[in-house]
């Protein structure tokens, strides 16, 4: 979840509530859903919140929400904007992978250190969230006075323009931020720390995105800006550009930045975006419209409202609403352009609920009757588990994920290859030896696949507990799976029943005795014809055949397996499919 | 009369005219003093003997005292060696005498200081001279401390002078402890019984089938066991503590009218994420959060549903609904993952895929494993059990959701549940549920809940309300029983002792 660092003094100043001490602010913030996580070294409050209200990624946005909460502001606020003086011309050479751009000018700012910090934080937080680490949207903020506009052509003729274009990786040089050398975009990716971080974003691009003014290249989105237009506290007028893979996303990111700078006393000036086939007027600060039924609000919240009350609550949430009675009572709701989380009228109902105070709602038990019950699979599993526990087994719970080493090699099996396009397992393969379901990008080398049988897990528990009292009779019922492209998911899952008897005199007979008892209480027919299995001692291994189907294996674990697991006593064990007991 | 063997022997050995201590009787009968004491009490209970108890002081030699009893006190050994070396006439060097007296280590200092204290002679400039002129009581041949050592060893400490005993205790050669001495006197009834004759009952160790079938059991006495001693613990088998907790949760849910769901652990992202209206570029859909499997795409997804879900993602649902401005491809939807939540099962059930179309009202649950690519620590595992539940009805409100969960958590002793408004891509409104930790008193998150969005339910063909919630079973276990490290019980790193001794869940 996003965390935003907020200066409490700034918050007091921007809300106009000097009387609130830090504790009072924290309480008010918690009510908004911003949880206090701690303080930075500089005494900023670290606030964590759910990633829906991305307009709260800076102190300005948090202050705006607080003012609505305090009742200082009501309804939708739209900043006034000046007419466009600048144009961004989008050229045909712009990389296909990153076709969209947007922008705005903000004039008359008086940014102090805190204001500049806040802007930089907002930029970073938007990159991390909506911008999907700059892949979907990247922000560049420039000192407008350092830009030299070319004379715009076409529809915007007569005004100043910059160009969004595409260039060869080494087609131009500029001095990027935090550098004192002229580098080509290609060199930035290999020689500059920021370049290295974001190189992956443009690695597959034939041409690199680039923004030019009349002087030359000044920005290499989404990687880095040039030093020429770097913003400082002395900067009064800013040019903000954003590029990305989705117009709506960068437009909304731009709106959030414009609202923040408006709160800092800046004056937003629109910018024309000249695509070859159309011109956009940005920022787009028009409201979105949702129609919400009165009945839906009442039924979702479980509360009766007067229409006036609903309108009041919506305005306290920073929305505008008009009640319309046309057979049914509905509300035409206007949603401000910094909101990115309102997709459906339902989201407006949520705002009503928050403004009303969810914790003021009285819980009630829904008056509908249903008949409950357990699934057949879990009933059988439970019955088998109870039977095993009654036979003296300690019920174990192991991870379903394991490694090839544990699942195959340490048990004396060869690791089968699973990387064929179509995998059909050998029906005669020994239990556990079927091909693995592997994890694409494993977290650690201990968890690289789903176990194909459970006996290795139990053997590992024995290995871990050699200092504990014997006998150790362990059993587990759980998932095992192997790769099978005959299955819809490509994964053949089954519940498996495994048991081991570890004691100084453990023998095949002991294991068979337990298995017989288990089969008897489930009224199934057991036979154990001899077989071979690399994990077990030859001549002391049998297939488990239940009601005519071969479903598992039983035997004495091979000394090779025991020694591999540092076990100094014999172990007899069995494993078979749970559904054989049905 | 028929009495056990020990009691008969005790009666015969006891006297009506004089008392005998239990200890002396035990020596006389060659029996264990505890057994004799027990027998005496049995007889006293029937009035055949009288048992008197008084406290006495027992004096025992320490190991060092016992050694000196045999080898002689160091100062006496020094005295004899000095006499032999002619030290009565002229001083002999200590070095010469130490070897002759067989003194070793600290014994040298002990010998010298006590030699001087007892007035056996003088020690000057490393030489010893014997001079018994200290007084008439100085007699190395009849040393009271040496005599006391012998007397204690013979059990005659009672006759010793207190100051000598004090001295031996100071020297660490003897120790005194309070003991209870019991003495036994035969009563008149005891005498009568003896005169009438008493049969000895046989004492047996184990009850055998032969004893039972022959009827001999009626004529035997069973040897006493030490019933207070610890036996070797027999652990038997137990259901895993987490399974017990799951059973408890299932009991509660079935009692509240919920039916159990079942479905695949490896499933298409479609069921795990897309149906839940999670945009395909959502940060939680990267491999950092979920386990993608190295297998080809899912073979089949229901075409109509795929189209409806794609439309919800792209266009939204309803007249003025908006979609996401994120890419959406069926290829991504068909990728197979280990499920990160069992909400994938809820999607399968709600869609009608699993058990056919469902009409309201419905209540369903599952308590099954899910897989998250998270950091392993005491409270997080790569796989854990998720409790998943949902309720379908014509009209549900936030109040119904609150009522249901209040009811559920009360069954686990959590009565102060709080609802914090939250955001999930798949529910609106959404709430995090908080409750007080029984041990620490802190407010901790105990679940996540909400009412499914229309973008979720619309494509699934559900035309009424569905509310849902989820939480980790492990968290509930830790809250209920104060477990601190979940790795002790779940997984192959588990400690069998911990499992064998974990408190039962009920």
UniProtKB/TrEMBL annotation, chain A:
Coiled coil: none
Assigned keywords, A-Z: Aminoacyl-tRNA synthetase, ATP-binding, Cytoplasm, Ligase, Magnesium, Metal-binding, Nucleotide-binding, Protein biosynthesis
GO biological process: phenylalanyl-tRNA aminoacylation
Residue ranges with Basic and acidic residues bias: 412-422
GO molecular function: ATP binding; magnesium ion binding; phenylalanine-tRNA ligase activity; RNA binding
Enzyme Commission identifier(s): 6.1.1.20
Residues holding Mg(2+): 341, 347, 350-351
Oligomer status and interactors: Tetramer of two alpha and two beta subunits.
PANTHER family linked to this entry: PHENYLALANINE--TRNA LIGASE BETA SUBUNIT, PHENYLALANYL-TRNA SYNTHETASE BETA CHAIN AND LEUCINE-RICH REPEAT-CONTAINING PROTEIN 47
Family membership: Belongs to the phenylalanyl-tRNA synthetase beta subunit family. Type 2 subfamily.
Name of the protein in question: Phenylalanine--tRNA ligase beta subunit
Organism from which the protein derives: Haloglomus irregulare
TrEMBL record, chain B:
PANTHER family for the chain: PHENYLALANINE--TRNA LIGASE ALPHA SUBUNIT (PTHR11538:SF40), PHENYLALANYL-TRNA SYNTHETASE (PTHR11538)
Protein name per its UniProtKB record: phenylalanine--tRNA ligase
EC numbers: 6.1.1.20
MF terms in GO: ATP binding; metal ion binding; phenylalanine-tRNA ligase activity; tRNA binding
Main location: cytoplasm
GO cellular component: cytoplasm
Subcellular location: Cytoplasm
């Amino acid at each position: 979840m996003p965390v935003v660092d907020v200066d409490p003094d700034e918050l007091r100043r921007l809300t106009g509530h000097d009387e609130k001490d830090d504790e009072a602010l924290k309480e008010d913030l918690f009510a908004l859903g911003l949880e206090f996580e701690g303080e930075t070294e500089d005494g900023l409050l670290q606030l964590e919140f759910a990633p829906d209200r991305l307009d709260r990624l800076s102190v300005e946005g948090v202050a705006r929400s607080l003012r609505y909460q305090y009742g200082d502001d009501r309804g939708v606020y739209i900043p006034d904007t000046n007419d466009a003086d600048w144009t961004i011309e989008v050229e045909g050479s712009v990389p296909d992978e990153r076709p969209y751009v947007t922008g705005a000018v903000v004039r008359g700012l008086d940014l102090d250190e805190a204001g500049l910090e806040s802007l930089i934080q907002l930029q970073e937080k938007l990159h991390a969230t909506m911008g999907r680490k700059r892949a979907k949207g990247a922000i560049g903020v420039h000192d407008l006075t350092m830009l030299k506009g070319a004379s715009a052509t076409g529809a915007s003729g007569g005004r100043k323009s910059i160009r969004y274009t595409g260039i060869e990786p080494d087609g131009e040089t500029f001095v990027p931020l935090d550098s004192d050398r002229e580098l080509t975009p290609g060199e930035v990716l290999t020689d500059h720390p920021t370049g290295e971080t974001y190189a992956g974003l443009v690695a597959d691009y034939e041409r690199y995105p680039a923004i030019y003014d009349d002087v030359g290249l000044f920005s290499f989105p989404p990687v880095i800006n040039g030093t020429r237009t770097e913003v400082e506290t002395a900067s009064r007028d800013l040019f903000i550009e954003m590029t990305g893979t989705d117009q709506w996303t960068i437009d909304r990111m731009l709106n959030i930045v414009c609202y923040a700078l408006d709160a800092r006393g800046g004056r937003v000036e629109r910018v024309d975006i000249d695509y070859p086939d159309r011109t956009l007027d940005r920022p787009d600060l028009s409201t979105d419209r949702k129609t919400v039924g009165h009945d839906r609000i009442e039924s979702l919240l479980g509360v009766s409202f007067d229409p006036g009350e609903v309108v009041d609550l919506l305005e306290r949430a920073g929305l505008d609403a008009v009640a319309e009675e046309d057979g049914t009572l509905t509300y035409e709701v206007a949603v401000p352009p910094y909101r990115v989380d309102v997709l459906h009228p339902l989201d407006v109902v949520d705002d009503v609920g928050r403004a009303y105070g969810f914790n003021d709602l009285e819980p009630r038990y829904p008056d509908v009757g249903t008949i409950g019950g357990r699934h057949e699979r879990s009933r059988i599993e439970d019955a088998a588990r109870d039977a095993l526990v009654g036979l003296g087994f300690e019920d174990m719970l192991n991870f379903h994920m394991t490694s090839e080493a544990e699942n195959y090699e340490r048990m004396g099996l060869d690791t089968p290859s699973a990387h064929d396009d179509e995998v059909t397992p050998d029906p005669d393969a020994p239990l556990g030896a079927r091909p693995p379901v592997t994890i694409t990008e494993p977290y650690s080398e201990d968890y690289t696949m789903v176990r194909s049988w459970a006996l290795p897990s139990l053997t590992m528990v024995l290995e871990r507990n050699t200092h504990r009292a014997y006998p150790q009779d362990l059993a587990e019922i759980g998932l095992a799976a192997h790769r099978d492209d005959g299955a819809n998911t490509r994964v053949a899952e089954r519940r498996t029943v495994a048991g081991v008897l570890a004691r100084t005199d453990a023998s095949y007979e002991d294991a068979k005795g337990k298995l017989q008892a288990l089969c008897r209480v489930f009224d199934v027919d057991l036979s154990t014809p001899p077989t071979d299995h690399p994990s077990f001692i030859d001549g002391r291994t049998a297939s488990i055949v239940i009601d005519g189907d071969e479903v598992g294996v039983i035997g004495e674990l091979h000394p090779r397996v025991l020694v591999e697991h540092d076990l100094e006593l014999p172990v007899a064990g069995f494993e078979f499919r749970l559904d054989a007991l049905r | 009369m028929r009495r056990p063997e020990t009691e008969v022997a005790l009666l015969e050995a006891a006297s009506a005219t004089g008392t005998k201590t239990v200890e002396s009787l035990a020596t006389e009968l060659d029996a264990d003093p505890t057994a004799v004491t027990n027998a005496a009490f049995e007889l006293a209970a029937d009035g055949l003997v009288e048992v008197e108890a008084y406290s006495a002081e027992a004096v025992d030699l320490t190991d060092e005292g016992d050694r000196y009893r045999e080898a002689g006190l160091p100062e006496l050994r020094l005295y004899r060696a000095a006499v032999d070396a002619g030290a009565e006439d002229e001083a002999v060097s200590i070095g010469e005498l130490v070897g002759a007296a067989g003194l070793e280590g600290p014994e040298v200092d002990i010998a010298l200081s006590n030699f001087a204290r007892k007035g056996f002679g003088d020690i000057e400039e490393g030489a010893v001279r014997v001079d018994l002129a200290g007084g008439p009581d100085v007699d190395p041949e009849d040393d009271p401390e040496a005599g006391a050592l012998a007397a204690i060893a013979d059990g005659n400490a009672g006759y010793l002078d207190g100051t000598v005993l004090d001295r031996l205790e100071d020297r660490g050669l003897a120790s005194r402890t309070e003991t209870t001495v019991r003495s036994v006197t035969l009563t008149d009834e005891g005498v009568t019984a003896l005169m009438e004759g008493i049969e000895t009952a046989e004492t047996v160790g184990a009850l055998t089938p032969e004893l039972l079938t022959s009827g001999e059991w009626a004529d035997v006495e069973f040897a006493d066991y030490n019933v207070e001693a610890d036996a070797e613990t027999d652990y038997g088998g137990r259901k895993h503590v987490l399974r017990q907790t799951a059973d408890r949760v299932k009991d509660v849910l079935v009692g509240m009218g919920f039916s159990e769901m079942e479905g695949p652990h490896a499933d298409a992202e479609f069921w795990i994420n897309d149906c839940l209206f999670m945009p395909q570029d959502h940060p939680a859909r990267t491999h950092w959060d979920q386990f993608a499997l190295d297998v080809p795409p899912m073979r089949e997804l229901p075409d109509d549903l795929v189209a409806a879900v794609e439309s919800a993602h792209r266009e939204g649902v309803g007249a003025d609904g908006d979609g996401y401005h994120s890419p959406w491809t069926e290829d991504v939807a068909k990728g197979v993952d280990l499920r990160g939540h069992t909400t994938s099962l809820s999607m399968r059930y709600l869609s009608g895929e699993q058990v056919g179309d469902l009409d309201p009202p419905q209540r369903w649950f599952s308590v099954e494993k899910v897989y998250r690519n998270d950091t392993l620590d005491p409270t997080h595992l790569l796989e854990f059990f998720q409790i998943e539940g949902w309720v379908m009805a014509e009209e549900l409100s936030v109040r119904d959701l609150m009522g249901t969960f209040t009811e559920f958590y009360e069954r686990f002793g959590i009565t102060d549940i709080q609802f914090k408004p939250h955001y999930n891509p798949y529910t609106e409104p959404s709430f995090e549920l908080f409750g007080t930790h029984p041990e620490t008193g802190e407010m901790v998150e105990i679940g996540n809940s909400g009412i499914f969005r229309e973008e979720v339910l619309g494509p699934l063909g559900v035309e009424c309300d569905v509310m849902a919630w989820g939480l980790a079973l492990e968290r509930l276990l830790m809250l209920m029983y104060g477990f601190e490290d979940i790795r002790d019980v779940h997984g192959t790193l588990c400690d069998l002792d911990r499992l064998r001794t974990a408190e039962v869940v009920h």
